[in-house]
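My current task is to audit a protein record that another person submitted. I need someone to confirm that the token line plausibly describes how this chain folds. Take the sequence as given and treat only the tokens as open to question. This is what I was given:
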Amino acid sequence: MRIAILDDYQHVALGFADWASLDAEITAFHEPFADEDAVVKGLAGYDVAVAMRERTPFPAHVLRRLTDLRLLVTTGPGNRSIDIEAARELGVTVAHTGYMSAPTAELTWALILSAVRNIPAENRSVRAGGWQTGVGGDLYGRTLGLLGLGRLGSRVAEIGRAFGMETIAWSQNLTAERAAEQGVTAVAKDELFARADVLSVHLVLSERTKGLVGAAELAAMKPTALLVNTSRGPIVDEFALLTALREHRIGGAALDVFDREPLPAHHPLRRLDNALLTPHVGYVTRDTYEVFYRDAVEDIAAWAAGSPVRVLT
């Protein structure tokens, strides 16, 4: 059995689980594949592939070319970049692992605090021999707006209350009763964008949510407001966001996710002082990786033994 571990950017995958327990030849790929042809070439001859979230897409036309692949394990409980129906038709089992949502909520607040208090700029100043460079903002008494109030949004709301923030939320299916259970006020979409001092995105990417935050929504925001996205890049219209940031129509953005990942080296977001950027590390923590890779090994062992696996549906 040959196993490919994909997108191990930090060169750590082999240290987070007992891969030696598998009777297999194991290769960890540390760089993203350049394109679909590179995926097919790189995975030729591999029976099993372990995908790290949606870093490498597996649409139907790629799966059809991976004629040796029999098991595809994705970290986490879902992966919208895998064509499940095509995999089923081709006889490829798609399994999944467990997940931890707390780290992404924690990173959301790391981004909020860093952006509001100008921490990156102050850190650079101190390291360069300088001292205070600006005046930070406040959270107490301000309004936290949540675009989505599911598992992650609810956790972010809980922390917001600890900072003394008023919390409002909107999503397509959110009810006033559901919001009240979380200590949050449900509002209309236009009110959410108009009132929020911090607007944090916590929706699942779908055809319905792609581009949901566009030019009109950004124009409705306060000129001092901060937009935070730790969900998926395409939920926010990238061109509209770039325009709003360049023209200082909003106070800033704190982003962990992007339309294209890894973010190209010369992407214009990298040059904007009012954009705080992290490289999609919301789930990149020791505890999460232990769950991901431990469960992946269990899935592979079960599949090799003909036992049931955590099938992704």
In short: The longest strand covers residues 143-147. The mean pLDDT is 97. The domain at 102-277 is CATH 3.40.50.720 (Rossmann fold).
